[in-house]
Write a structure and sequence with these properties.
382 residues; single chain; alpha/beta; elongated; Rossmann fold; 2 domains; Metallo-beta-lactamase, Chain A; 22 strands; 6-stranded mixed beta sheet
């Protein structure tokens, strides 16, 4: 696409954020973020989604440049999270006649975020409702919990474009070239991952639509090979691993637990096993979570700390649980010179999750461990 044009009638008016360091206050985004917004040019001029309030002036200026004096008839609100709704009132101020389009829950949230500003017109739509702009016909598709409950998709029948809210989004600003899979996977499992069932339901709703492009709220517009992206999303939403391999996630303080993890790595690699060792104390959490969902086997290796596990391990396990981690084989390594508890805590934390095979733990005492136990674990992971 060129500077702003996606199709003859659909224009890009979003912004790049290079100042942000933590997305949603927790995900490191060294390559920034994009907040995407679009215009559909027709008899009724329609803006699709807003941007973070920090970029309200830039966003409204982008719209003015595209419209060249035309008014805005509709603003469609697919998602009310503040990085997409924060500038709505700035558009209302610039174009007072604009009609805001959303579902009932959209406007409930709008009133919660902007309790003292209700001087705007509203059009409440439901699942399968349509809106005719001229020669463009829009269809509204509710997609609850992908990833907030008010989320909807908007399908432009004329240009065969799906405005997909946070679905198919990725970390990274648009003016930085980056691999889609890596940052889209990290985004998916960080932001949407808990709601795989809802994602599959939403994808089923759009499965019969003719699609030429997908316009997400973060990341690039997807213009070619749409089957690839849709299949990726179906795969991730099913909680199935991407490939055969082992992630060894380690919480070590003095290096002894890490040393044993690396010995296990050597044993596994002797059989050409794909193995990745991550230091949880130094790895960004969403990266570790994404890796855990990538592979079909996981080893949790932690010291015993205050009769529990080390904090980075505890945080990692909770992140996996909150995203419905399942359908994997999990091994355990604990270290405890006296009263070791880490394996018990880790194993009990994962009990009850669907489709997990939990292996018998092995114990380290300081720097001392049984090579036979390690070989047994390696064999069970092959």
């Amino acid at each position: 696409m060129n500077k702003s044009g996606i199709t003859k009638d659909i224009r890009y008016v979003g912004v790049n954020d290079h100042k942000i360091d933590l997305f949603e206050g927790q995900f490191k985004v060294e390559k920034g973020m994009s907040y995407n917004s679009y215009i559909i040019m027709d008899d009724k001029t329609t803006v699709v989604d807003s941007v973070d309030r920090a970029f309200a002036e830039e966003w409204v200026n982008n719209i003015r440049l595209e419209l060249k004096g035309r008014s805005v008839d509709y603003l469609i609100i697919n998602h009310m999270e503040p990085d997409h709704s924060g500038s709505i009132l700035e558009l209302v101020k610039a174009y007072p006649a604009v009609l805001l389009v959303g579902n009932a829950m959209t406007f409930k949230m709008l009133d919660q975020f902007f309790p003292n500003n209700r001087a705007h017109s509203r059009l409440i739509v439901k699942d399968k409702d349509t809106l005719v702009l001229g020669h463009h016909r829009l269809h509204f598709i509710t997609a609850p919990n992908v990833h907030w409950p008010e989320v909807m998709f908007t399908y432009d029948e004329t240009d065969e474009a799906l405005f997909s809210a946070d679905a198919f989004g990725k970390f990274g600003a648009l003016d930085i070239d980056d691999e889609w899979d890596k940052e889209a996977r990290r985004y998916y499992f960080g932001i949407v991952g808990k709601y795989g069932k809802n994602v599959l339901t939403a994808l089923d709703k759009v499965s019969n639509l003719k699609l030429k492009l997908i316009c997400p709220l973060h990341g690039p517009v997807l213009l070619t090979g749409l089957e690839y992206y849709i299949e990726k999303y179906k795969h991730w939403a099913s909680y199935e691993p991407d490939q055969d391999g082992v992630l060894i996630a380690v919480s070590s303080v003095y290096g002894n637990t890490m040393n044993v993890a690396k010995e296990l790595q050597k044993l596994l690699e002797e059989d050409s096993k794909r193995v990745v060792v991550l230091d949880l104390n130094r790895t960004e959490l969403s990266t570790a979570v994404s890796k855990a969902f990538k592979y079909n086997k996981l080893v949790l290796a932690s010291i015993t700390y205050n009769q529990d596990v080390f904090p980075s391990m505890s945080q990692f396990i909770e992140a996996l649980k909150s995203r419905n981690y399942q359908n994997r084989t999990v091994g355990f390594i604990e270290n405890g010179s006296w009263a070791p508890q880490a394996a018990k805590v880790m194993k009990e934390s994962l009990e009850g999750l669907s489709g997990l095979t939990l292996l018998e733990p092995i114990s380290i005492k300081g720097a001392t461990y049984s090579i036979l136990d390690l070989e047994r674990l390696a064999k069970e992971l092959k």
